[in-house]
């Protein structure tokens, strides 16, 4: 059997019809059928409602800076499924991607015949582990897709686990309270394996702490919020610099949320530096090289693109913009899936919007609000000018002042970046 890259993507798209299945049995079967690649790898397992991608990108950059080869598995992708599997920031090649699908498809087909067809996410999780094992990477930054306890990534035994934060999101799968969602995220904690956490509500942290104690796992809180000599720059390259615990840090991801994410990964890097004998100071210099498209990303014309999609993420975004621009009033291009807290999201964005341009999200099998529905929702509490357009391309042609803000979903960010950026800017970070 031979597949082109497009053939491979088409096959994976057909697996989407099997949706989301909570459980680990199918993933374990896939992994075992290809030689249990997870047992040959050193994982850093990341879960959290917001921030896990940025934390993962920081870890990737820091570990590369001290000479390690680092695999990174993440989701969703912005413009290509190749982004889900990176080594040292570079997305898997089309050829390698297609070859992995060819190798795994017969196994998946046999499982389907037995009544347990793998989902898209389970299949790509196995692809990533096999790819990283065969390329013999030193570390794998291993990001959950959703939740943790029954997430396909949770079959691994990591070096450490990280839970960045807990917020209301994916309630139809994870539960409709902070405590319920914390219980799902806490599922990645393993016996005796250290866990690092971000700032989160007390009742969420109680769940994490109880789970860790029951498994004999140490818990490390985020580093203290003591950053000195903070300096923010937007031009020529956005960055924030500060002194932390006598270390000079330059971080090219912007905003207070990213400083909070730094507070999570600092003790993780301390732990790894002690265990694998590398310079923490050298690793921290790698944070000046971090690239993570679609997350508070500044384009040359001043456009800001951010995939924030829930109230916590959008609140963090507005705080970042308030730091960078005094009393910001920006045109906002916005789209949101219909399973999100969209009314609350709009209320968070409305104070900084000079006008809204509403668009549906096209490239997903999930339902999203139409532009007209979003206009009607906005009218229930605001007189801010708004217009509905049929798609992201139409939104980008609107003659509005710069800078402008594009937000509401990583899928929308992907649609926009596919139009505005070169593919290599997304695939190679």
Structure commentary:
With 429 residues, the protein is an alpha/beta fold. It folds into two domains: 5-226 and 256-278, Mur-like, catalytic domain (UDP-N-acetylmuramoyl-L-alanine:D-glutamate ligase, 3-Layer(aba) Sandwich), CATH 3.40.1190.10; 297-427, Mur ligase, C-terminal domain (Protein-Tyrosine Phosphatase, Chain A, Alpha-Beta Complex), CATH 3.90.190.20. It is built from 16 helices and 17 strands. It has an eight-stranded mixed β-sheet, sandwiched between helices. It has a six-stranded mixed β-sheet with strand order 12-13-17-14-15-16. α2 runs parallel beside α5 (120-134) and α3 packs across α9. The longest helix is centred in the middle third of the chain and has 21 residues, at 256-276. It is globular. The relative contact order is 0.12.
Structural class: alpha/beta
Q: How far is it from the N-terminal to the C-terminal residue, by CA?
A: 32 Å
> Which class of the largest domain in CATH terms?
Alpha Beta
Overall shape: globular
Overall residue-averaged pLDDT value: 90
Number of domains: 2
Strand content: 15-25%
Q: Helical proportion?
A: 40-55%
**Total helical elements:** 16
CATH topology grouping of the largest domain: UDP-N-acetylmuramoyl-L-alanine:D-glutamate ligase
Total strand segments: 17
Low-pLDDT runs of 5+ residues are none
Sheet bearing the most strands, described?
Answer: 8 strands, mixed
Largest sheet, spatial ordering of strands: 4-3-2-5-1-6-7-8
CATH superfamily of the largest domain: Mur-like, catalytic domain
Q: What is the second-level CATH architecture of the largest domain?
A: 3-Layer(aba) Sandwich
Rg, please?
Answer: 21 Å
């Amino acid at each position: 059997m031979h597949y082109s890259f497009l053939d491979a993507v088409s096959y994976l798209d057909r697996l989407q019809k099997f949706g989301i299945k909570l459980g680990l049995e199918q993933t374990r079967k896939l992994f075992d059928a290809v030689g249990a690649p997870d047992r040959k790898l050193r994982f850093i397992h990341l879960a959290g409602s917001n921030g896990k991608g940025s934390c993962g990108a920081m870890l990737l950059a820091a570990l590369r800076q001290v000479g390690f080869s680092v695999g990174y598995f993440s989701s969703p992708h912005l413009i290509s499924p190749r982004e889900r599997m990176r080594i040292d920031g570079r997305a898997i090649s089309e050829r390698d991607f297609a070859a992995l699908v060819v190798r795994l498809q017969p196994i998946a087909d046999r499982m389907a015949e037995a009544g347990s067809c793998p989902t898209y996410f389970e299949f790509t999780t196995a692809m990533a582990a096999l790819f990283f094992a065969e390329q013999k990477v030193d570390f794998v930054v291993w990001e959950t897709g959703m939740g943790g306890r029954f997430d396909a990534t949770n079959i691994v035994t990591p070096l450490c686990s990280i839970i960045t934060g807990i917020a209301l999101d994916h309630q139809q799968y994870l539960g409709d309270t902070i405590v319920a969602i914390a219980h799902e995220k806490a599922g990645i904690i393993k016996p005796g394996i250290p866990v690092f956490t971000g700032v989160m509500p007390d009742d969420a942290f109680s769940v994490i702490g109880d789970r860790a104690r029951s498994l004999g796992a140490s818990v490390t809180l985020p580093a203290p919020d003591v950053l000195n000599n903070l300096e923010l720059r937007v031009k020529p390259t956005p960055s924030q610099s500060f002194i932390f615990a006598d270390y000079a840090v330059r971080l090219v991801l912007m905003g207070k949320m990213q400083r909070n994410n730094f507070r999570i990964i600092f003790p993780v890097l301390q732990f790894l530096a002690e265990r694998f004998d590398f310079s923490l100071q050298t690793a921290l210099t790698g944070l000046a090289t971090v690239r993570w498209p679609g997350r508070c990303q500044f384009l040359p014309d001043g456009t800001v693109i951010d995939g924030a999609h829930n109230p916590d993420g959008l609140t963090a975004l507005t705080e970042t913009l308030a730091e960078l621009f005094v009393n910001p009033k920006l045109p906002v291009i916005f789209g949101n899936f219909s399973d999100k807290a969209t009314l609350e999201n709009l209320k968070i964005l409305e104070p900084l919007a000079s006008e809204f341009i509403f668009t549906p999200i096209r490239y997903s099998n999930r339902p999203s609000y139409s532009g007209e529905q979003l206009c009607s929702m906005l009218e229930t509490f605001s007189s801010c000018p708004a217009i509905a357009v049929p798609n992201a391309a139409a939104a980008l042609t609107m003659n509005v002042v710069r800078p402008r803000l594009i937000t509401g979903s990583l899928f929308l960010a992907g649609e926009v970046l596919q139009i505005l950026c070169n593919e290599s800017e997304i695939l190679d970070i």
